[in-house]
Amino acid sequence: MSNKISKIAVLTSGGDAPGMNAAIRSVVRTGLYYGLEVYGVIRGFSGMVEDDIRLMESTSVANIIQRGGTILKSARCKAFFTPEGREQAYNNLKKRGIEGLVVIGGDGSFTGGLKLSTEFDLPVIGLPGTIDKDLYGTDFTIGFDTAVNTAVDAIDKIRDTADAHDRLFIVEVMGRHAGYIALYSGIATGAENILIPEAETNIDDIIAALSEKEKRKKLVNLIVVAEGDEFGGASEVAKVVKEKLPNMDTRVSILGHMQRGGSPTCVDRILASRMGFHAIECLLQGRKNVMVGIKDDKIAYTPLEIAIREKDKINDEWLRMVKILAS
Ligand code: ATP
């Protein structure tokens, strides 16, 4: 393996996702194995601008693979949107001789990384770290599996109480622009309806189905809503249901930030470990500005600009299946 670079940095940026620590560990340990000096940037691009950059050792990443959150911390950094901010950030890398960067985050973080790379000719490798699974070029993102399992666990519990009281529960899960958490958790918990930004929400159809179920005395119902659904989230759906079906015992539950936390699942730990390992191999092979993804269980590289710009379409077959299984 050609080894033109000798110093690299890694950071986590944007919304945190379980499995980011496993990815940091993999980047650091693989980098050290190949004789690189590896730096950790604290609080994403903020730490780069503010010069909070620390040399990492093997022990810096000991005992973290099972922990949620990120030991490097994450942040959203306004200064990085400006050319001056990015120049200051780059100078802090340059003075340490850092020649490559691994960015673990979502599309915003990749956009920032790509700008830095274009402006200062610095190779950047992106690892998809987001619970939303909204990046093109990968079947899964780091944190998605854990977030979905957390949602499934919570919704199963909600169904128990819904059943005890014959209630309709409208559960909101995360996903501002992508409905994958709602889709997966809704299917896995047998939800009667799943509302996602990628599919039109026909509230009249939902009311008609609920009303018909009310007549059949099927009183337990579960609707899973992605926060970014065009209808406006669980509370808005509940308002309409209460207005049209006042006798239905309707409750709302918003799962919120619990979906980001917790110990990563085995799937996320392995995904993050594989991706971190390949990020270093990419830099050593002279690749730049690609996202390391996973396609059909094989590592796949996608140019960052495509990973950011393109969107995966939810297969119509999934939506058809949801309808059939809920009937
Ligand atoms: P998530 O998917 O969880 O929201 P993300 O990586 O998309 O994660 P953002 O908040 O969009 O999170 O972006 C994280 C940071 O990346 C921003 O705070 C900013 O520092 C940098 N960034 C985002 N977009 C740009 C941009 N257009 N130019 C420069 N920097 C950017």
From TrEMBL:
Record's subcellular location: Cytoplasm
Activity modulation comment: Allosterically activated by ADP and other diphosphonucleosides, and allosterically inhibited by phosphoenolpyruvate.
Top class in the EC scheme: transferase
Gene3D superfamilies noted in UniProt: 3.40.50.450, Phosphofructokinase domain
Pathway stated in the Swiss-Prot or TrEMBL entry: Carbohydrate degradation; glycolysis; D-glyceraldehyde 3-phosphate and glycerone phosphate from D-glucose: step 3/4
Gene that encodes it: pfkA
Protein name: ATP-dependent 6-phosphofructokinase
Natural source organism: Rhizosphaericola mali
Record note on quaternary structure: Homotetramer.
Binding site for ADP: 25-29, 159, 190-192, 216, 218-220
PROSITE patterns in UniProt: PHOSPHOFRUCTOKINASE
Reactions catalysed according to its record: beta-D-fructose 6-phosphate + ATP = beta-D-fructose 1,6-bisphosphate + ADP + H(+)
Cellular component aspect of the GO annotation: 6-phosphofructokinase complex
Cofactor(s) needed: Mg(2+)
Function: Catalyzes the phosphorylation of D-fructose 6-phosphate to fructose 1,6-bisphosphate by ATP, the first committing step of glycolysis.
E.C. number: 2.7.1.11
Ligand binding (ATP): 15, 76-77, 106-109
A Pfam family recorded for this sequence: PFK
TM stretches of this protein: none
InterPro entries per the UniProt record, alphabetical: ATP_PFK (IPR022953), ATP_PFK_prok-type (IPR012003), PFKA_ATP_prok (IPR012828), Phosphofructokinase_CS (IPR015912), Phosphofructokinase_dom (IPR000023), PKF_sf (IPR035966)
Domain Phosphofructokinase: start-end pairs: 7-283
Family, similarity comment: Belongs to the phosphofructokinase type A (PFKA) family. ATP-dependent PFK group I subfamily. Prokaryotic clade 'B1' sub-subfamily.
Any GO molecular function: metal ion binding
Record flagged with keyword Transferase: yes
Amino-acid positions noted as binding substrate in the UniProt annotation, renumbered to this chain: 130-132, 167, 174-176, 227, 251, 257-260
Binding site for Mg(2+): 107
Keyword line: Allosteric enzyme, ATP-binding, Cytoplasm, Glycolysis, Kinase, Magnesium, Metal-binding, Nucleotide-binding, Transferase
GO biological process assignments: canonical glycolysis; fructose 1,6-bisphosphate metabolic process; fructose 6-phosphate metabolic process
